[in-house]
Amino acid sequence: MEINGEFRRPERKLPDAADPALRIEAASISFGGIRALSEVSFSVPQSGFTAVIGPNGAGKTTLFNLICGFCRGAGEILKDGARIDPLPAHARAGLGIGRTFQTPTLIDGESALHNIMLGSNPLLSSGVFSSFFSMPKARREERRARERAEELLEHFGLGPVGSSPAGDLPHRQRRLIEIARSLAGDPTVLLLDEPAAGSHHSEAVIMLEQVAGYCAAQGIAVVLVEHNVQLVMQFAEDVVVLNFGELLAHGAPAVVKKDPRVISAYLGEEAA
Ligand SMILES: Nc1ncnc2c1ncn2[C@@H]1O[C@H](COP(=O)(O)OP(=O)(O)OP(=O)(O)O)[C@@H](O)[C@H]1O
């Protein structure tokens, strides 16, 4: 993304092609007596879709929370070869970890455009003082955030509803706004938590095609939590299967689909 010096881009390391975009190393976390993740290790390549699948309660969202810094556990998380697990959530966002949530978290009374602009926050450098007094730097940053949001609205076909309150829009468009908002923060790794939930299959395919096109062009690695196995098989190059917090399988979709442990724990004979 062009920044013209207005946005504070946190010191992002240029990825070495040899480093994975993300490396999860022995990630573990418990809530009371529940072992939500247990020694989970895998890598996410620099591009393409990695799907994380597994039954309800397998630990998928907890894994995202751990990567984003919304909760702390044991083990290491490396982005482009550098450890990020000691960092707070906002610093990880600044380093290029973007995410969406299972349940939409839009501000219903704000327009689609403003909701997307909020996603630029990890890149802003003007403080509360200069924003409050609308100083030139803050105005430039706001202009850039607006232009960026307008580009994203166009890409996702949301241009005509840019000024509509998010709360008035149908589910499919709300989902797209959430994705666009996370892309406004200029991530290099995008974590999508069940973006297709509640959408018809054909809508979900179009949505993921739009995401795939954008992320491929921008060099963004996507990690997708998804229960729709058909979508996973269509979009993911790599599949991680969790079960009761443990890594059950990891590999190419065609291989994982035939793994007897995955069939027994999650897919069932029919889906496989
Ligand atoms: N904050 C928390 N406090 C207590 N238990 C939690 C917390 N977060 C997650 N858990 C528990 O950890 C386990 C994993 O939950 P998680 O939400 O990560 O699963 P999931 O695979 O995302 O499930 P789903 O597909 O239903 O969204 C579950 O048993 C859940 O109840």
Automatic annotation (TrEMBL):
- PROSITE patterns on file: ABC_TRANSPORTER_2
Question: SMART domains in the record, alphabetically?
Answer: AAA
The superkingdom listed in its UniProt entry is Bacteria
The ABC transporter domain sits at: 22-269
| Annotated keywords | ATP-binding, Nucleotide-binding, Transport
Which molecular-function annotations from GO does this UniProt entry contain? ATP binding; ATP hydrolysis activity
Carries keyword ATP-binding? yes
Q: Might you report a single GO cellular component term?
A: plasma membrane
According to the record, the signal peptide region is none
**Protein's name according to its UniProt entry:** ABC transporter ATP-binding protein
- Record organism: Leucobacter weissii
